[in-house]
Hints:
This protein is mainly α and 388 residues long. Among the domains are: 82-141, no CATH class; 143-288, no CATH class. It contains 14 helices and two strands, in the order H-H-H-H-H-H-H-E-H-E-H-H-H-H-H-H. A two-stranded antiparallel ribbon has the order 1-2. The longest helix is centred in the last third of the chain and has 23 residues, at 272-294. The termini are far apart.
Amino acid sequence: MPPASVYSDPCHGHFVHDQKKGSCPIEITSANRVVSAGVRPATTGTYIPGDIGQAVGNRDLRFLNLVDHTNDGAFDLAGADPGELMDAAQGGIIDGASAVAEFGRRIPKTAGDADLRGILVSSITAVKAMMDAGVVIRAGEDTNGNLLRLWALSSKRASVLGGPLMSVNDTTTLNIDFSGSDVSSNSRAKLEIRRATTESVFDSAVYIWTALAHTLGIMPLEISVHFVFEAVHSLRLKHKESFWTAQEYFIECLDLIDRGICKVSEVANHDRNLILDKARRLGGTFGEAAMKASDPLSAPMDGGRKAWNQKCQPATSKANFCQNYNRNKAHDDSKYLMADGTCKFRHLCNRWVTDKGPSGRCESEHKADCAWWKCSNPNKTPNNQALD
C-alpha cells in the first residue's frame, strides 16, 4: 500500500484533474451534498458532460442549492430593515411577493422621509426585476421545489438535443380536466412544466435529471436509482403503461417529495391507484394534444390520417384500456391506431369496481357494450373512486 501521505485518486485517473485533495469530481460531487445553513455549495463543472451541464445556469444553481423554498416563519418580516428584506428575498427566506408587499406597506409611513421613500420604491423595482429574471421566487405557493425545477430544466435540455416539448400554453386544443383531483395553484404550476412529446426525449430527460440530481447533491444516486426505477421504468416494463402516463406519474411523485408529503421509499405506493388514474388521464390528454399539434403524416387513409377499422385488441391481451372507447370519443387520433387501423388498446370498461380488490376494473363483464361513460355494473364504486 502507498504511504498515507501520498494522494490516492478516487477516480483512478478516469478524470483529468489536479492530483490533490478536493480536485477529483468524485470528491466534488460528495462535497455538493453538504448542507450548511440550508444551502448547498454545489457548482457545475467539466466533469458533467457538456450537453448536460448546460441545462443548469448560475441563476438555476442559486435556486437548486437552497434546500427549503418555503418562507421562514421565524423571519421578522415587519421588523427587518430594507437591506435585510432584500437579502431575505435573494436568499429564499421569503418570496418576492412578500417582500414587495412589505416594502409597499411601509411607503405611506414615509411622508417626512424622502430618502427612505426612495429606498422603498427602488427596492420594489429591484425585487420585481429579480422576480422577472428568476433570481427571486415570485410566490411560495406557486413555487416548484428542487426536484420539479430540476425536471423542468432537464426536459428543456433534452428537447434541445433531440426533440420537441409541449406545455399547456403551446396549443389551444389542450383541455385539462381536474374533476375529482387537486385543483390548486400547485397543480397549475406542475402543468406549466413542459412535456416531452417522444419517448426518446423523455428517456433522455430522465437520464439528465438523474445525473444532475446526483452531481449537484440534490438526490444521491443511491436513492435516485430506486426512485427512478419504481416511478418510471417499472411502470412501463411491469405494468405496460405508456411513456405519457409514466411522465405524468413521475412529475406527480417529484411534487409529493418536494412538498414533504412522503419519502422516496413511500412515494411509489402513495395513493397509487388515484395518482396512476390521474396520470393516465393527463397523459392521454397531452398525447392527444401533441398529436393534433404536430399532425404527422400517416397512412393515406381518411384524409391523411389512419382510419379506425372497427377492430381492437383481444380482451385477454395485456394492452391498456382504450381511452377513446371509455370516453365515448371517435377514433380520430392516429396515435391510438396500428398501421392497419386496428386500435392498439382493449375496448373494455375501466370503471373501478368493489368486488375485484384494490385494482379491480369492470372490464365489461356485466354488459357487452359497457364503458366508463355508461357503466351499468352494480358493483362500480361511487364517483369512480379507486379502493385503497
